[in-house]
Amino acid sequence: MFKKISKKMLTWMTLAILVLPLVLASAAAFTTKASAAETDPTLERIQKKGTLVVGLSADYAPYEFHSQIDGKDQIVGFDVSLAKAIAKKLGVKIQIEDMGFDALLGALKTGKIDMIASGFSATPERETQVDFSHVYLKSPQTMIVLKTNKAKYESGELSAFSGQKIGAQTQTIQEDAAKTIPGATVVSLQKYPNLISQLSQGVVAGVVAEKTIAQAYADQNPKFAVVEPKFSADSTGQTSIAVPKNSPALVAQVNQVIDKVTTNGQFNNWKKQAQKQMFSSKDKSYWQKYGHYFVEGTGITLALAVVGVLIGTTLGTFFALLKLSSVFILKAIGNIYVEYVRGTPLLVQAFMVFFGTQAIGLHLSAFVAGSLAMGLNSAAYVAEIIRSGIESVDKGQTEAARSLGLSHAKTMRLVILPQAVRTILPALGNEFVSVIKEGSVISVIGVGELMYETGVVQGASFEPFMPLVIASLIYFVLTFTISRVLGYAERRMAR
Question: Are 94 and 81 in contact (CB under 8 A)?
Fold first, then answer.
């Protein structure tokens, strides 16, 4: 009897020893799988820093736009309300980064932002680059036209637009829809208010827009009307949230918020609230509503120019000396830098600095990246100014200084540069004036300089032309004043 029991116990113990590791391994695998479903690298990064950085282009009312709330400038709209709900779901703070629409995808892929909430629609090309949430808004594509031309296009036939110029925002499904119009020429611009400006001036016959946006402009400006061209069904705007690739846990969290707010009516309430905020300050004058944008933009434009010229002058002097060096390697480095920078647009350089520094782990703000890009760009031109100024000094001055026993460095510092300054300073002044105007390019990465703020006013006021007039007058005052001051300094030096 005892032997039988012992054999049974031995059998069960043997089975337990064999089966237990399998059970533990299965449990571990199940736990690991569950954990993987609950988190991902993007979600972990957001929760670790405690902030959700949301990228958008705030010139697209009522999706997102600037408005005065309790005397403070804020970015509002139903996209912003949705983003705040997502941040609350994740238990983190929200940080809004406003930049050009065509910079959003690059900012997301390089880690500048964690999410795009800017009327963004999934396309096959975009889906290879980023992940998308559920659709939270469907809106058919319409066309904004001048009311005087409404009868011509009211039939909705695409052939009615044949031979016409049609406007659309670059890198959007509206641009794709515009390209399906037979015989039409598509005019693609980055900023939506600029398209409206071209429409109001009759440069384009119509602007493709989602119905929500088109109706907002038509309600605000009696010059415009909305028609509904017969675009294909797949051109209907289906707005989603975009997040970095391979972020399943983050997408799941975002989808939970979207499913909730679109079924319980909360999203519709946000849309109504955005519509009210669009027209909440009609009782104020134009300058009361938007004057501070121009003032702030002017200040940042001047700050960009000063920092850019300081960096440019320092680096420009260095590269000018490299170009004048008798050492082949140093001279080659100076020449390569100057020729490369002068041969590429500032816009490309701004993107390279903004995204490139992020890729190597330097998290620069838009202002710092913009200042650096302008400084690096200015350095190439300053280098040529300084080089030509130095070479304008008679070579006999160098020979005389060296014959007196001065070293090359002392000759340059004590004899050549003081004489070259008279030639260099006026050209440097002109460079400063040029940098002020070129700063408008930096607005594409979200630096709040004058042209950026002008775009903000265009989007908030639905007035495409007047903000441009005001901006042009401010630029004129700045450049004219600086030119007169430089002219006075030049005359003093001549005496």
Answer: no
User: Taking the CB of residue 118, how many other CB atoms lie within 10 A of it?
Assistant: 25
Reading the block at residue 211, the tokens are: 């119905």
pLDDT-based confidence at 495, cuts 50/70/90? low
Residue 373 CB partners (closer than 8 Å, separation 6+): 346, 349, 350, 352, 353, 354, 442
Torsions phi, psi for 391 (to 5 deg): -70, -15
Contacts of 174 (CB under 8 A, 6+ apart): 141, 168, 208, 209, 210, 237
d(Cα 394, Cα 83) in Å, to the nearest integer? Answer: 65
Q: State how far the Cα of 154 lies from the Cα of 167, in Å rounded to an integer.
A: 18
**Tens digits of residue pLDDT in 218-229:** 887 888 999 999
Single-letter amino acid, residue 395: K
Spatial distance between the Cα atoms of 121 and 208, rounded to a whole number of angstroms:
15
pLDDT digits (tens, 9 = 90+) for 451-488: 888 888 887 777 778 888 999 999 999 989 888 887 77
